[in-house]
């Protein structure tokens, strides 16, 4: 049981939880994730660690409401508890002084890109960060990102803030002015795929963080298998970060969609007020 | 003594009924049946059955108490050696261990030792709350990694000897394969929980959600957290796949995932639980061990119209217990033998729809002593399928070895440990169960945990 010491709504369907977890905070490194379960009959879901505070003994999780578990999680308040929290899982980001690097966060992906940008900055890199969302209301942590970046650029689909368009447009612009040694991209699968396509011709090593369906998160079940350079990898123990030029994104997107219909059913069941009647939620 | 009395059959749920529910198949003996069965025991002066038991249960002694109706005494005798008797009574392969050695089995049927063990353990659980005699503390701390059969056994034995034991479990529930792997219909989770409560009553502390290798390393446990010795029982937790085309299509599960979703996460009760599972009309389980039988039988209970065992050798080589194979057949699982998939094909959404198979014939015996399957050229054919479960074995989980560089490993990544003591290349660190042997049985893991507990006790006593 881990106590929630801060709950915050960052934007529509976007929530932050700061949770007591002293040992986890002590061991967490940029790029790693945790698995959360919030009720006895609940599922285990992976979430990338958005921040960790050694002194406070806390970790911060940011999530978007996409299915039943995140819906239920969004209702938790300060002072409530997470039933189960396990981590840090996965391999940390490879942090070195590469020179000039770009850190790209799209949507909820801004959260996990933050500790990576911070670590890269601390290691001496020139960090150019690009964050994007559908509109300005869905952007968050601009100040925190600015603090750890030499340059912070913004893109929104509707142009309500920063460049009107995609993070990839901004990245192309950045690439004309800078010689990037390495790129990190975390966000929707399609964004990571597109970023990898932009950097591929220039052969700029591009790291993406995959968040496939998982059960245990410790290498036991293989639900999270992804194809990287024609080889099957388990995102939970071999990743979650992989070389974006090697990842089979189409396969990853198909696998991510496998339970969509079940997720819809679970939400219907949850929202249904039939009280055990004869509707389809049964 | 009447020797020719037949073995008392196990009352079971009817196959037609049971394949539609997750309740336990074998229902257990009542008192009269148990006593009748116990009377068949010859009480041999030199009991061979005991030699067949990896945890050295005093079998004739407990059976004698069953005959006399002293079930409580019988339970005490069993628990003296076996911390998890209701589990062992259900899932041990007695036919190749204690019952295999039973002298009655030479000319007829052996005493049903497993069924009697189960009866005694269940009787005790219902009738009495067992008192635990407090033991004097040795002041020594032992860390046990993994709350599966090996770890729980080792922890229980060490606690009985007065050591302070903490078990670290990665999942949210202790039990390991007993909880995530073996289905409810073969081993009810209430039984596992009951026996884990007993281990806790012995004084063992269990910390769930704690991944050793990530949250603490073994060195940190010993140098910073004050543990005097460590036992690693992290099991065979890395599923093998075949590395053939199409294997990452949707609907292809490892047995671990398929069973974990169902057993640990309760997916059979979705949407009343939150974890889903998808089972199609035709399910092919690749492999023919106990795990494969569990998966094939689980698939039927989840609503599959047809459930196949697909195995590249013949019936004689199937590694599953005969009882499990029989149960699977009674429930309608079909066996496709001397066949193995070489490719999977899917639809436009990436869901598996077909399995390209090849036929095999048996050649010369291989290193395992079993006749080696040899592919028949040109024998390829397609099989319509919408769910596949890979039950072809599993390797050692890498998290502990990867974070403990001074631990010697085999080429396959198993920890090298002395079979008699469990001691590893790292002083004060012991290991046992599937992480050492590769995937085996619950009872062998328990036996290894027991031996290691003895060796750890010696180590702690001599090093003080």
Relevant terms:
heterodimer; A: 282 residues; 2 domains; seven-stranded antiparallel β-sheet; 16 strands; 32% strand; B: 464 residues; five-stranded parallel β-sheet; 35% helix
Could you give a short account of the major beta sheet of chain A?
A: 7 strands, antiparallel
Relative helix content of chain A? 25-40%
Strand percentage of chain A lies at: 25-35%
Count of individual helical segments of chain B: 19
Strand content of chain B: 15-25%
Q: What gross morphology of chain B would you assign? A: globular
Radius of gyration of chain B: 23 Å
Number of strands of chain B: 16
Work out the number of β strands of chain A: 16
What does this structure look like?
- The complex is a heterodimer of chains A (282) and B (464).
- Helix content of chain A is 27%, strand content 32%.
- The radius of gyration of chain A is 19 Å and the shape is globular.
- Chain A has helices at 22-27, 68-73, 110-122, 142-147, 167-177, 189-199, 235-238, 249-256, 260-271; strands at residues 2-11, 14-20, 33-37, 45-53, 58-64, 81-82, 84-89, 100-106, 126-133, 151-156, 163-164, 182-186, 205-209, 225-228, 231-234, 241-243.
- Chain A has 2 domains: 2-89, Elongation Factor Tu (Ef-tu), domain 3 (Beta Barrel), CATH 2.40.30.10; 93-209, 3-Layer(aba) Sandwich (Rossmann fold).
- Chain B is an alpha/beta fold and 464 residues long.
- In chain B, helix 4 packs antiparallel against helix 5 (71-81), helix 5 packs across helix 9 and helix 14 crosses helix 15 (290-301).
- The radius of gyration of chain B is 23 Å and the shape is globular.
- A 5-stranded parallel β-sheet of chain B has the order 3-2-1-4-16. Chain B has a 5-stranded parallel β-sheet with strand order 6-14-7-8-9. In chain B, strands 10, 11, 12 and 13 form a 4-stranded antiparallel β-sheet that branches.
- The chains are: A alpha/beta (282), B alpha/beta (464).
- The interface between A and B is large, with 45 and 43 residues.
């Amino acid at each position: 049981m881990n106590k929630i010491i801060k709950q915050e709504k960052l934007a529509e369907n976007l929530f932050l939880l700061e949770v007591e977890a002293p040992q986890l905070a002590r061991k967490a490194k940029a790029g790693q994730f945790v698995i959360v379960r919030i009720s006895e009959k609940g599922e285990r879901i992976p979430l990338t660690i958005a921040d960790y505070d050694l002194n406070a003994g806390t970790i911060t999780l940011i999530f978007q409401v996409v299915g039943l578990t995140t819906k239920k999680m969004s209702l938790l308040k300060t002072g409530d508890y997470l039933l189960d929290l396990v981590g840090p899982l996965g391999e940390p980001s490879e942090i070195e002084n590469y020179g000039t690097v770009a850190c790209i966060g799209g949507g909820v992906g801004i959260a996990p890109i933050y500790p990576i940008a911070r670590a890269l900055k601390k290691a001496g890199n020139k960090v150019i960060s690009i964050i994007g969302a559908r509109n300005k209301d869905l952007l968050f942590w601009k100040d925190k990102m600015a603090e750890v970046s030499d340059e912070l650029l913004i893109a929104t689909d509707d142009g309500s803030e920063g460049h009107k368009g995609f993070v990839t447009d901004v990245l192309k612009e950045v690439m004309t002015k800078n010689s990037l040694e390495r790129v990190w991209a975390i966000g929707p699968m399609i964004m990571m795929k597109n970023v990898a396509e932009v950097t591929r011709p220039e052969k700029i090593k591009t790291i993406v963080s995959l968040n496939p369906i998982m059960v245990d998160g410790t290498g036991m079940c293989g639900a999270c298998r992804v194809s990287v350079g024609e080889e099957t990898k388990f995102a939970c123990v071999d990743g979650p970060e992989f070389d974006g030029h090697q990842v089979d994104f189409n396969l990853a997107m198909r696998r991510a969609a496998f339970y969509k219909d079940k997720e819809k059913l679970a939400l219907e069941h949850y929202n249904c007020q039939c009280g055990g009647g004869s509707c389809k939620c049964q | 003594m009447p020797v020719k009395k037949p073995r008392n059959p196990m009352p079971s749920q009817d196959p037609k009924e049971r394949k539609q529910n997750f309740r336990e198949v074998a229902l257990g003996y009542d008192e009269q049946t148990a006593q009748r069965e116990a009377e068949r025991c010859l009480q041999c002066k030199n009991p061979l059955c005991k030699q067949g038991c990896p945890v050295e249960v005093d079998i004739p002694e407990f059976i004698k108490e069953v005959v006399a109706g002293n079930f409580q005494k019988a339970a005490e005798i069993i628990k003296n050696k076996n911390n998890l008797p209701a589990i062992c009574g259900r899932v041990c392969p007695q036919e190749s261990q204690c019952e295999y050695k039973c002298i009655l089995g030479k000319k007829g049927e052996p005493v049903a030792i497993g069924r009697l063990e189960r009866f005694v353990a269940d009787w005790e659980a219902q009738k009495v709350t067992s008192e635990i005699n407090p033991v004097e503390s040795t002041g020594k701390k032992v860390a046990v990694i993994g709350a599966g059969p090996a770890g729980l056994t080792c922890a229980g034995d060490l606690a009985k000897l007065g050591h302070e034991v903490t078990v670290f479990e990665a999942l949210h529930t202790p039990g390991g394969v007993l909880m995530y792997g073996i289905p409810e219909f073969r081993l009810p989770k209430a039984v596992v929980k009951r026996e884990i409560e007993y281990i806790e009553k012995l004084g063992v502390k269990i910390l769930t959600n704690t991944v050793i290798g990530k949250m603490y390393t073994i060195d940190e446990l010993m140098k910073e957290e004050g543990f005097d010795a460590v036992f690693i029982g992290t099991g065979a937790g890395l599923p093998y796949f075949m590395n053939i085309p199409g294997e990452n299509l949707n609907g292809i599960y490892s047995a671990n995932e398929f069973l974990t979703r169902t057993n640990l996460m309760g997916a059979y009760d979705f949407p009343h639980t939150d974890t889903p599972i998808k089972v199609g009309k035709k399910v092919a389980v690749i492999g023919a061990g106990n795990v494969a039988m569990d998966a094939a039988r689980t698939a039927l209970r989840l609503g599959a119209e047809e459930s196949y065992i697909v195995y590249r050798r013949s019936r004689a080589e199937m590694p599953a217990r005969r009882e499990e194979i029989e149960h699977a057949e009674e429930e309608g699982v079909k066996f496709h033998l001397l066949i193995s998939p070489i490719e999977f094909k899917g639809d436009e959404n990436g869901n598996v729809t077909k399995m390209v198979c090849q036929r095999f014939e048996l050649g010369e015996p291989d290193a395992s002593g079993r006749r080696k399957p040899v592919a028949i050229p040109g024998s390829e054919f397609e099989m319509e399928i919408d769910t596949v479960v890979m039950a072809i074995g599993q390797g050692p989980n890498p998290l502990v070895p990867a974070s403990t560089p001074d631990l010697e490993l085999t080429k396959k990544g198993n920890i090298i440990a002395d079979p008699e003591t469990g001691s590893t290349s790292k002083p004060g660190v012991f290991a046992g169960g599937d992480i050492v042997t590769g995937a085996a049985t619950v009872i062998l893991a328990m036996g290894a945990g027991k031996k290691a507990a003895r060796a750890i006790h010696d180590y702690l006593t001599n090093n003080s």
